[in-house]
Every structure is written in C-alpha cells, then in structure tokens.
Design brief:
It is built from three helices and four strands, in the order βαβαββα. The chain is an alpha+beta fold. It has two domains: 53 residues, no CATH class; 53 residues, no CATH class. The strands form two sheets. The chain has a two-stranded parallel ribbon with strand order 1-2. It has a two-stranded antiparallel sheet with strand order 3-4. Strand 1, helix 1 and strand 2 form a beta-alpha-beta unit.
Length: 107
C-alpha cells in the first residue's frame, strides 16, 4: 500500500531495545515503531491496550474506526478507509454504504 494515504505505527514492549530492533529487522517491520521497554508503558496505558499485538485503525480525520481488529480483517479495513479519503486528501470523505466501521472501544 505504498503511496496510499495512511500510516502504520507500531509499539514495542520488549525489555531490551536492541532485541526489539533485531525482531523488527527479522520480521521485515519497516514502519515507525516506538519502544517502551515494558508491557504497561505510558503509551499502552494511555490507549488501554490489554496486550500486544493490538491494532487500532484511525481514519484520515483522526477518528478511531477499529480497535482490536483481527489481523485477517486488517488489509480490507485499511483499503476501505483509504478508499474513503477524498481526492484532495481533506474533508470527510464517504465510506461505502453499509460499510461504516465500528468506533466501539473494546476492553
């Protein structure tokens, strides 16, 4: 999805920072990723993440559209949100009918 209007961010909770870098390298993780050094760090706590991995999809307006989305649904959910971005990259955009994503927060 290179060149598409979305950003993928990661959060790493490994205790050892170098171990986290090596893991990302082995797995081909080339997106921006924060290292907290612990499971219940400030970002995980602020976002009330029950554990990792934990996926949060935020649309181009900054609205949380999905949380704790199963990984097999991730690509189609991203594609729907990218398709909803208006050509100028601003404004509300339009999601396909009956495809409104959930904004429900999960525990």
């Amino acid at each position: 999805m290179k060149g598409q209007p979305f950003v993928l961010l990661g959060l790493n909770s490994d205790v050892d920072r170098e171990q986290a870098r090596q893991y990302n390298s082995r797995r081909g993780i080339n997106w921006r990723s924060w290292w907290e050094g612990r499971v219940n760090g400030p970002v995980a706590t602020a976002w009330q993440m029950p554990g990792l991995p934990y996926l949060v999809l935020i649309d181009h307006q900054g609205i949380i559209r999905h949380q704790a989305l199963p990984s097999d649904e991730l690509e189609s959910a991203i594609a729907r949100l990218v398709a909803a971005v208006p050509p100028d990259g601003r404004g509300a955009g339009t999601l396909p009918p009956n495809r409104e994503p959930s904004t429900k927060r999960t525990p």
